[in-house]
Amino acid sequence: xxxxxxxxxxxxxxxxxxxxxxxxxxxxxxxxxxxxxxxxxxxxxxxxxxxxxxxxxxxxxxxxxxxxxxxxxxxxxxxxxxxxxxxxxxxxxxxxxxxxxxxxxxxxxxxxxxxxxxxxxxxxxxxxxxxxxxxxxxxxxxxxxxxxxxxxxxxxxxxxxxxxxxxxxxxxxxxxxxxxxxxxxxxxxxxxxxxxxxxxxxxxxxxxxxxxxxxxxxxxxxxxxxxxxxxxxxxxxxxxxxxxxxxxxxxxxxxxxxxxxxxxxxxxxxxxxxxxxxxxxxxxxxxxxxxxxxxxx
Amino acid sequence: xxxxxxxxxxxxxxxxxxxxxxxxxxxxxxxxxxxxxxxxxxxxxxxxxxxxxxxxxxxxxxxxxxxxxxxxxxxxxxxxxxxxxxxxxxxxxxxxxxxxxxxxxxxxxxxxxxxxxxxxxxxxxxxxxxxxxxxxxxxxxxxxxxxxxxxxxxxxxxxxxxxxxxxxxxxxxxxxxxxxxxxxxxxxxxxxxxxxxxxxxxxxxxxxxxxxxxxxxxxxxxxxxxxxxxxxxxxxxxxxxxxxxxxxxxxxxxxxxxxxxxxxxxxxxxxxxxxxxxxxxxxxxxxxxxxxxxxxxxxxxxxxxxxxxxxxxxxxxxxxxxxxxxxx
Lengths: 297, 328
What we know:
The structure holds two protein chains of two kinds. Chain A is an all-alpha fold.
């Protein structure tokens, strides 16, 4: 037998295992989930491979070719400084995804910490959740704008502002599932064996409360990408000339009649990413817990 | 014969759950009197059956005895130590001796842990042995409860209800406890599986000298496994005696009604049915005097006014009823 056939047989075995094991198989069979996964994978690849696939440097000016129409050298045209829009959109994905990812991580950490404390320790529930209610009383995007404007425009401050705006929603979801899981008999059994709170929280409660959080985080990712664009657009995100999708749209706004492509293509990129993440989240929700309905706004 | 000090002595144990009125006020709108002053003893190696209908406080009693919930008042003496008053640290240490088996075999096992880690968890918590010796102990316990050792690395969802219940029993045995609260351990199982699990529990009792508090609403199961039986109604014990005199000669009207509800597999046998009317009153606002007087066919004026104490009517047969006279 040749190496190629051995490898092919192995690969088939692997595929077979993936198809038979229930969770990956159900995700694999979920068409919308797979569509979302592919869309998101494309955006992710774009961000990682930016230096390889971008035809020009993102901040390279070319005053001889300002507001140029899309053509063979500049596939998506150029902006008012003659910068290549395609390259800027490709590099912009790095910033957008980085902010989205950091917001997701911060949400996972703080949302879990706050939600688990509120759900598990009954005495903390009321004080914590009333503060969270207070934060949730503001529309999230307004709160994020206000915070980002106060803190000053930078990538880190955008992440911070978005975390404060969305962590209360994550906390509420974690709290809800912790409240259910903490009443399970296996938690009582661990208590009866003398387990401490930390052990119960991490070994029993949190591991069984993760499904709704996972779904929520994919939506948070989408919302964060969108919100980053909003913050950049009104000038409280990462400052120009950093290519972010919001910055590119914002800069193209003044030339929307002469050069609509400047704002159009980053807008499409945002829509593409958010669509992919939402499909991903919907698919995860269908597979992990069909009864669950998640509100992201 | 000198009476030895009882292994477990429950003395006037009370658990009231407060009902809170609003978000901001801490005032109470009322209390649920789940367990309202119960006293009994359990001897070493015996099985005390606890019967009663839904919501009468059976499970709360079981959880109180393990201090999974803290009692409102009353004492809980194991070997002379009042567990209602020990520090949390001491309590954690004492938990090695006390275990619980649950009703629902589906929610009693953590779905993310393997059978081995479920069974070993109590050992890990108390820092007993190393991972090799714990694994050996898990295998030993799987043998004891009649499961194959090869199941050790599987997850709970791969098992049937009866098998899961055996895993729960193995977990309860891991620390070599002396006392196990069995909270309706077979009521979620098929009848044929019920018999297997009960026989297993009896064998284990003989082998390890276990003491059981066996909670059930199934009188036939109680009759099979218990040595003595306590009948609960609305947070109180109304009758407590050995199982032979309970089933042969029930004194309390409530017990009589319960026993007459057991179907007999003989259509020709005539029997007297005592049928109760109405529902169980709410434990938030229980009736005055004897809690049972609202449904009792023999109730008199004094039943409404005075609460009957649980008293011995001869031969250790304790009844809480004004109408039952001591026979001795």
